[in-house]
Every structure is written in structure tokens, then in C-alpha cells.
Amino acid sequence: MRRRVQWTAVVAMGGMLALAACTDAGPDAASSPSPHPSAVADLDCADGQELAKTLSSGATWSMCWSVDPDFGLVLSDVHIAPPGAEPISVISSIAISQLEVPYDTGERLTSDISESGFGGTKMKTLEKESCIGDRLAADIPDVGDGTYGKTRNREVLCSEVVDGGLAYHSSELVSPAVARTENWQLSTVSRVGWYEYVTQYVFGADGSIGVRLGATGDLSPFDYTDEDHGSSVGEGDHDHAASHSHNAVWRVHWALGGDGSMTVEQYDAAPTGEDGPQSPVLQGTTTPLPNPATAEWVDRRWWRVLAPGALNDDGHPISYQIDLERSDSFTFVEDHEHGADAGYDVAFTNADDCQLYATRNAKLGCGDGVLDFVQRGAGQTLDDVVSWVAVGFHHVPRDEDQSPMEMHWQGFTLLPRDLTAQRFDVPEGHEELNGVPSDEWLDEQGYED
Ligand SMILES: [Cu+2]
């Protein structure tokens, strides 16, 4: 059976005006009249508490939160309601499921979630300074390291709405529009050993969910080694703090579209070896993953979870993309003469005022691009370094890790793909842009056929 998810008309909003109107219009801001219908899911948070927030786009997130002695912050029954629409079920529950920390010396391995846990006494009571939003309390049993004691009501969850930067910018002729966006951050802090881990979920006004693990606190005082297995964090070439890995795995139990069945697809795009008149031809393929499977990331690969029985207004099955935030390596088309695999994730050269363009630098007269710069500079000692980053957590301690350690983050993003037929907050005058623009629209924009 195919269900069609019915969205009512998208609420057209005028850029910054809408932001101003909606910023304080969260469901918990009961005194200010909201321009949007209530879109909070009907939740039964038996083991937890309900949370909801309407963001700049007019979309409303709602869910339950609780604290598990091992997994720490657990979010469940996560729903999103696009502006003017009913809540859509997205996730049944999400939490970190293990954090393994092996040291490069081979002499220490911890499995922090199963051995220590992020909840119980490990979860810290938040201070005013750590949270610009609301500090929310839950009953936290004094569980930790096998000890059981009282249950205390403590403020452990930070709920804060932060500016998310530019939402969109359109300078088109008829309906220019610009707006900023908001993120709703839910965070807890857990101290395990010498480290303090921030569990953070970032719910975007665009329907995205950022899943983050931040680490601060202090380096282990007992894990110092030699230069082959660590790095010097004290004066001179001494005090090598051991390198180590933070291997985190989150469990995401999906409930996309509600009770219906879900499927998984892997997307890949690969060069065909053929060239078009302007650029190489790539073939995009979607491979169903019908059975339980493991998969590895390669360039241009991503996965999505679909609810095939729930369609958006374009008739597309709603889905969420799993974005590992690995950058796609590439070789510039104009560098193919060096070989189609000559691309780089990062390159280093000495600064040269006539090496400014990564490709097409010939007009400046000292090499066509980065690969040329690297070749030409091969005999040089790097000194006045320029990084050419085409961007991809193994923690090699830095001097800045003392003390407390500068925050380091790892994570991924869950991105709606075809959840709605258009962006959540279509500004006035952009409603018609859904598919190939009409000739009429092109005329209005001053384009000629
Ligand atoms: Cu570390």
C-alpha cells in the first residue's frame, strides 16, 4: 500500500521578516502567538520527557529525551513537521552505542560506553556558563562504576537555539530573497576518565540532524610515550603524549514515515571513461541494499534510508541521507593530463605570489596549477607553507590540548532527501520553482531562449 504524505500549502515567508516572526515562536514560548500551526507530535514519552522547538523555517521538531546509564542522552520518537504540515516520524531512537579508545602504544584500550557509560554519575550537572539556552533536569540515578545509590534530579541537558548562518541567498530579478537559519542544539557532558565528552545533536531548520561527539577535559596523565607513538606537549622534545583513536559508533533506529517498512540504497557515481564536449561523463547508480550489509565510503558515495510507502508531493519516496561528511576527492578536469587519478586531498607548496590559482594559473606564468607547483617545487624545503586542501579522528595530541583540551569534534549529518517537494521555507515568489523552470519564469528573469 502506498501512502501519500499530504503536506498543506507551504507557508510563504519573507526572509528576515519570517525569521523575526518565528525566532521566539517555539511551542514552549506559550505567551507569544505563533504564525504557524502547532506541529508537535503526539508523543508518549513513557521513559523520558518531551521536547519541541519551532525554528526559523517554520519547521517543528518534537521528540522524547532520557538518560541511559550506559548510552547517556537518548533521543526517541523524533518527528519533524514541515511548515504548515503534520509531523512526520523520522527516528525511533538515536544514541551513541560505543566509544572505543585504543592508544597507539598498544598499552591501553577503553570501551567507554560499555565499561563506564555516559549517564549516571558520569553525566555532569551543567553550569550557567556552559549553556546559553535552557538547562533541563532529569532524574539521574547515581549509577557508575558498578555503584548504586540515590537518584538525583539534576540539570544535565542543554537546549539552545543558535544562529546557523545563511539559509539562502537569491539575487534573482523578480523575487530576491535572503534569510538566515537556526539550529537547535541538544547537548550533555559526560566525564569518562580524564576526558569530558559532549554528546550533541544539532536539529536544523532545514530538517537535517547533526550528530556530534566533542571531546575536552585532559589528556591521560598516564599515557606518555616516545616520539614514534605520541607527540611532545611539553617543552622541547620531551613528554610525548600518546596518540590514540576515538572510535565512535552511533545507533540510529529509524522510523521514517511511521510504521511502514523501510529500505536502504547506496548511491555511487563513477567516471565512464568517456568525455563529453566539455567534461568527463559520469554514471550515477543506485544500488538497493536488500540485506544486512557493511559498506565502506569511497568518493561520491552515500546511503539513504527510504520509506517507499510514503511519498512527498512530487511523488518521491521520503528518505534521509547518511552523510559521513567525508569530502569527495577529485582531480580537476584541467589536471587530467597528469592522469585521471592525480587529484589530491591536500597539497603543500612554498608561497609564491605568482602561484595563486589551483588550475588555470598559466596566465600568471609559473605553472598551470597545484600539481605543477608541486612538481616545480620538488627540490625545495617547505618553509613558507601554503596548504591546498581538497578536504577527510586519530588524535595526535597538540600543545593546545593542555589544558583543558581544546574541543575536538567528530560526527556525521543526517540530511533529508525528498522529505518535501521543495525546501521547507520557500520565500514569496519562489513557489513555482519545482522542476524545470517554465519559459514564463525564464522570461521574467530576463533569460532569452
Ligand atoms: Cu583524544
From TrEMBL:
Record's cofactor remark: Contains 1 topaquinone per subunit.
Disordered: annotated span: 263-290, 430-449
The keyword Signal belongs to this UniProt entry's keyword annotation: yes
EC number in record: 1.4.3.-
Cellular component aspect of the GO annotation: plasma membrane
Acidic residues compositional bias, start-end: 440-449
Cofactor needs: Cu cation
Boundaries of every Copper amine oxidase catalytic domain copy: 60-418
2',4',5'-topaquinone modified-residue sites: 195
Keywords: Copper, Metal-binding, Oxidoreductase, Signal, TPQ
Family: Belongs to the copper/topaquinone oxidase family.
The name this protein goes by in its record: Amine oxidase
Source organism of this protein record: Microbacterium hydrocarbonoxydans
Taxonomic lineage of the native organism: Bacteria, Bacillati, Actinomycetota, Actinomycetes, Micrococcales
